[in-house]
Amino acid sequence: MDLGLRHLKVVVTVAEAGSISRAAAALSIAQPGLTAQIKRIEQDLGGPLFERRPEGVVPTELGTHFVLRARDLLAQFDDLLASTRALGCEATPASSILIGASGGGNWLPRVTGIVADLLPDHEQFVYVEEQQHRLLASLRAGKLDLGLITEYPYLPTPRLTGLAGLDLGKEPLLIGLPDRHPLAGRDLVSLRELAEEAWVVPAGRSEELRLSLRLACERTGFSPRFRHFGVDHTTAADIIRGGRAIGAFLAHDVPAAGLTLARLVDGQLWRRTRLVWPLNSPIAAVAKELTSRTGTAMASVG
């Protein structure tokens, strides 16, 4: 079975409706046909996506994972259509700087501010592209002038062939614990000590962070028990404060009130941020000053 966007929409609609009958009505298809379609999708994926109950259906753990990623893909597809139509109708000024980002957190506003100072006659356009390989392809094709990319441990390092780059450094990932957690009084904890904990899945579209966390835990000898999905940083912090889970954060992602943020022994989890640009980009002419200015910014937050 070749799964496509329409199958993603079917699964998401069932999850949101909470019942096959309501989802069938929303999709304008017969209930038996929808049931058969869900079964074929489950067979293709190798496991049940929904648990059938008298009051309706609820996603299994596999189903929760699929629904979260499917929503993300459907949203990205809608954004692709909208942004492509907008770009097709609007010409980009000749003296412009096109900046793309696949992450970078609080680095993005800093970098755009520095570039605005260095190239004041160039109008800025900023695009967020969650798929890093697409961002790099756009840079190599000359469709973007500057990119902000991220790396995580245990994942393949992005190939930067044909691009110049600047390493903005590594930020440690911190473990958020409830204040009353037995480990909350310590500055350093090990992943092994967290093997029995429930985790809040890293917020947003941080699939690389989630995979990096899983691989780090598996190298330590256990699989993380992801139990809370699709929440933003504020909600994640609230869940952790309530004592129901722990989570991984960058220092600037979460307010500290009511939480203890502990570092991991040996710095097992981190995020590296890089600036990259094509060799013929306008950025190349100010690369030395950009390096100096970003170095100053790094020192101010170090």
Automatic annotation (TrEMBL):
Residues 1-60 form the HTH lysR-type domain. The keyword Transcription applies. SUPFAM superfamilies: Periplasmic binding protein-like II, Winged helix' DNA-binding domain. PROSITE patterns: HTH_LYSR. Pfam families: HTH_1, LysR_substrate. One of its GO terms (cellular component) is protein-DNA complex. Keywords: DNA-binding, Transcription, Transcription regulation. Gene3D superfamilies: Periplasmic binding protein-like II, Winged helix-like DNA-binding domain superfamily/Winged helix DNA-binding domain. Coiled coil: none annotated. One of its GO terms (molecular function) is DNA binding. InterPro entries: LysR_HTH_N, LysR_subst-bd, WH-like_DNA-bd_sf, WH_DNA-bd_sf. Belongs to the LysR transcriptional regulatory family. PANTHER family: SMALL NEUTRAL PROTEASE REGULATORY PROTEIN (PTHR30346:SF30), TRANSCRIPTIONAL DUAL REGULATOR HCAR-RELATED (PTHR30346). This is DNA-binding transcriptional regulator, LysR family. It comes from Amycolatopsis xylanica.
